[in-house]
Write a structure and sequence with these properties.
The complex is a heterodimer of chains A (503) and B (301). Chain A has 20 helices and six strands. By secondary structure, chain A is mainly alpha-helical. Chain A folds into two domains: 126 residues, no CATH class; 244 residues, Orthogonal Bundle (ABC transporter involved in vitamin B12 uptake, BtuC). Classes of the chains: A mainly alpha (503), B mainly alpha (301).
Chain lengths: 503, 301
């Protein structure tokens, strides 16, 4: 509250502000006339039109007011705007509106403007330059990464204890499994995007290869999940090498588009090769995992096998399998994390990070670029394959529908929103990207709308990702002037020596 | 032979559509070096605006086909251009100096947003439209029939390309745009309003994509909110194939992709046509990484 009293509010230049707001409102008018104002509806005689001019007027009015609010914040009148925006959001929340869409615009728009006003009041943010703001956020990220040394283990313990808390019902466990699957995929993709700096838009292809490997091996040969898990990883890694070999010499965006194409090719093959893959109908009846081949999770096991509850002398509960799946994906995800943290300290991981920073310098230092990238690609593909076969066994049913581009986009968004190369960032971003839409399931149709807008807003707010903070894993003159190798060993895994570097 | 000619015409008109979308990708890539992932959605919006305009005209009682088509064209280009401008203003301009991945993620978010926006507003069901321009031109004693719509597509595309080339090569706007493409900072120092030029690039790209959307509506007579994705990917493929950053390359790439698709579906069945497209893209990139008409990038160390 001190900032607002310090910044002497200038006299408001009403004409300029009104003109700006009017221009914005005019653009909003042009935007909303065709798509919002005129709706196509199916009539028995063919397509018809419906007019919704009230919604156009409301949208234009709200945009006008919103722009006005932003201008006033810029001019140093954040407090008034905060009150008004909060009132608008509250009105949208409590008072019935003619349409649902309007209500959501009102709540979301009011909330965003209110948040901006709060930020402006608290930090005098509007006065800070972009660079200063970046620095400040970077500092926070560095602190979080530093804290992740003890936050990480705590989070793991909490995750381990979660199924035994009274909170854990079927629905929450399912969400937990989903979340952990995406965390694992995010960590897997992080190897390619975050460490090696290759933009992979088709990661879902390897996920699909893993899922179909298990489903088909189980379908045609009756292999068990525990045999298929490594096989699926192997097959996914192989497909990674097969794809990677020709395309890894491509640069940047060409590489991105080829991986995107590859993801689509895999999906089209899955759809069209219906004799083998079941086509668009997918494969159902995929066997559930057993308890390490020892016991089943059924109530009445087949002859010669044991049931899990009999083995441990427990009451039968369908939750047992869910809890087992939860631990399975937790362990798988942690393996990926551990692998990444360790490999960053090996020559291979060092080479990846060097490649990410400067391709040409690496080549001139004698690093075999293609082999290094291929290794990153294959390893990430392998983890994708593991996640895929887990997905298949959890769902019991897979179809090409599950492996569309949007999945790749979501996984990439998790990596980039979290801050590239940041392990804890992936967890935070997965919570945001997967957890929030799950929590707001009742919004139904508007969920993906908000999801897309949220992606844009987070990127605008933090272009380098939420927890982007990159200290070199190894420094020449590291902590307290000790040499490079010592600093390297002092580096605690994925966190590098965050905060320890002498500034 | 007749079958071959038939597929050739189909491929050319399809290629013209891909080419029109690809120009938007290639211009944006040339000037700010980002993949405008939402461009496919802009094309989809163009198709919807054209459809809505046609229905509005129908309800106003204007049914004279040439006038209707002209109004559709202008309205689709105008309104879609505003969408292109807004997307750039909201999602890309604040990220101009950010790391390379930030605008890409923002673009993917915008693409998801626009898709769902149209789905919520206009409904998820596909929108059928009775043919506006029926009739065929028969050649070679009726062996080859070219529908007027496909012919119109090719003619309009050629006309637009001519006008567009004039715009880029002859006007001061085109000069400013080419200057920004080479060196934004220098162009800014010499008095070019870089922000405005970039905005106009998006506006032009969106207007051309809107024409493509309208053509698809006329040729296939059915659109839905999801058409933008695949068309967008293929158009980007076309832009890469032709050499990204090169305008004639984008058109050439579009035509090549269109021809491959038409011939592949004509002779091998339509299931695998997308695989063929992407496979050829991969092959071209392996043997000619800069695309067909692209200039090799000079690496400075």
């Amino acid at each position: 509250m001190t900032a607002i009293s310090l910044s002497s509010p200038r006299a408001i230049a009403w004409p300029a502000i009104l003109k700006e707001a009017a221009m914005t409102a005019f653009v909003a008018l042009l935007l909303t006339i065709p798509l919002v104002g005129l709706r196509t509806v199916d009539r028995p005689t063919g397509l018809g039109l419906e007019t919704r001019w009230d919604e156009v007027a409301a949208a234009v009015g709200l945009v006008f007011l919103g722009r006005l609010g932003l201008c006033l914040i810029r001019e140093g009148h954040a407090a008034i705007v905060l009150v008004l925006a909060a009132a608008a959001a509250a009105a949208g929340f409590f008072i019935a509106m003619p349409t649902e869409a309007l209500r959501i615009i009102l709540i979301a728009g009011g909330a965003v403007i209110a948040i901006r006003a709060i930020l402006a009041i608290r930090t005098g943010r509007s006065k800070l330059s972009q660079a200063e703001r970046d620095k400040r956020m970077d500092h926070i990220a560095a602190q979080v990464q530093h804290a992740s040394r003890w936050l990480g283990p705590i989070a793991i313990v909490l995750a381990l204890a979660f199924p035994f808390t009274p909170l854990a019902d079927r629905q929450l466990l399912d969400i937990g499994i989903l979340l952990l699957t995406y965390v694992m995929l995010g960590w897997g993709l992080n190897i390619v995007v975050g460490l090696a700096g290759l933009l992979d838009l088709g990661y879902v292809a390897f996920y699909a290869v893993g899922a179909y490997s298990y489903a088909l091996l189980a379908h045609y040969f009756g292999f068990s999940f525990w045999l298929c898990l490594p096989l699926a990883g192997l097959l996914a890694a192989l497909s990674g090498v097969l794809l990677g070999f020709p395309v890894l010499r491509l640069r940047g965006d060409y590489f991105a588009i080829v991986t995107l194409g590859f993801g689509e090719i895999i999906r089209i093959i899955l759809i069209n090769w219906y004799q083998f893959t079941g086509g668009p109908n997918g494969i159902s009846g995929i066997p559930r995992p057993s308890f390490f081949g020892i016991a089943d999770f059924t109530r009445t096991p087949a002859d010669g096998t044991m049931a899990f509850h009999e083995l441990f002398g427990l009451e039968f509960s369908p939750l047992h399998r869910i809890i087992f799946l939860y631990y399975l994906i937790l362990v798988l995800a942690l393996i990926v994390n551990l692998f990444t943290m360790r490999i960053r300290k090996l020559p291979l991981g060092r080479a990846w990070e060097a490649l990410r920073e400067d391709d040409i310098a690496c080549a001139s230092l004698g690093i075999n670029r293609t082999n290094m990238k291929l290794a990153a690609f294959a390893i990430a593909a392998m983890f994708g394959g593991f996640a895929g076969s887990f997905f298949a066994t959890r769902q019991g049913f897979i179809s090409p529908e599950s492996f569309t581009f949007i999945e790749s986009a979501i996984i990439l968004a998790i990596v980039v929103l979290g801050g590239m190369g940041s392990q804890i960032g992936v967890v935070v971003a997965a919570l945001l990207v997967i957890g929030l839409p799950e929590a707001f399931r009742e919004l139904a149709d508007y969920r993906m709308l908000a999801f897309g807008m949220g992606m844009v807003l987070i990127m605008l707010w933090r272009p380098r990702g939420l927890l982007a903070h990159r200290d070199p894993t190894i420094l020449l003159h590291g902590k307290g002037g000790s040499g490079g190798p010592a600093a390297g060993t002092a580096a605690a895994g994925g966190q590098g020596i965050a905060g320890g570097s002498a500034k | 032979m007749e079958y071959f000619l038939q597929q050739l015409i189909n491929g050319l008109s399809l290629g013209a559509i891909y080419g029109l979308i690809a120009i938007g990708y290639t211009m944006v890539y040339g000037i700010i070096g980002m993949i405008n992932f939402a461009h496919g959605e802009i094309y989809m919006i163009g198709a919807f605006v054209a459809l809505i305009t046609f229905l509005t005209l129908g309800s106003l009682g204007i049914t004279w086909v040439p006038l209707a088509l002209l109004v559709m064209l202008v309205s689709a280009m105008l309104f879609t251009a505003v969408y292109g401008w807004t997307v750039e203003r909201i999602a890309y301009r604040p990220l101009r100096s950010s790391p390379r991945l930030a605008p890409l993620i923002s673009a993917i978010g915008m693409s998801i947003f626009l898709q769902n926006y149209v789905q919520i507003l206009q409904g998820a069901r596909s929108k059928p439209l009775q043919p506006i321009l029926p009739g065929n031109l028969t050649l070679m004693d009726g062996a080859v029939s070219v529908s007027y719509v496909r012919l119109a597509t090719i003619v309009i595309t050629i006309a637009l390309m001519y006008g567009f080339t004039q715009l880029i090569t002859r006007t001061s706007l085109g000069r400013a745009q080419r200057a920004c493409e080479q060196d934004k900072k220098m162009a800014g120092l010499l008095g070019v309003n870089v922000d405005r030029v970039i905005s106009l690039t998006f506006v032009m790209g969106a207007a051309l994509a809107a024409v493509a959307g309208m053509m698809v509506l006329l040729i296939y007579g059915v659109i839905d909110f999801y058409i933008g994705f695949l068309a967008g990917v293929k158009a980007f493929t076309a832009a890469v194939l032709g050499g990204i950053g090169s305008l004639p390359g984008a058109m050439l790439g579009g035509v090549v992709i269109g021809l491959i698709e038409a011939f592949w579906s004509g002779y091998m069945g339509s299931e695998w046509k997308d695989v063929a497209t992407f496979t050829i893209l991969v092959l071209v990139l392996i043997f000619r990484p800069t695309g067909l008409l692209g200039r090799p990038e000079i690496e400075k160390v």
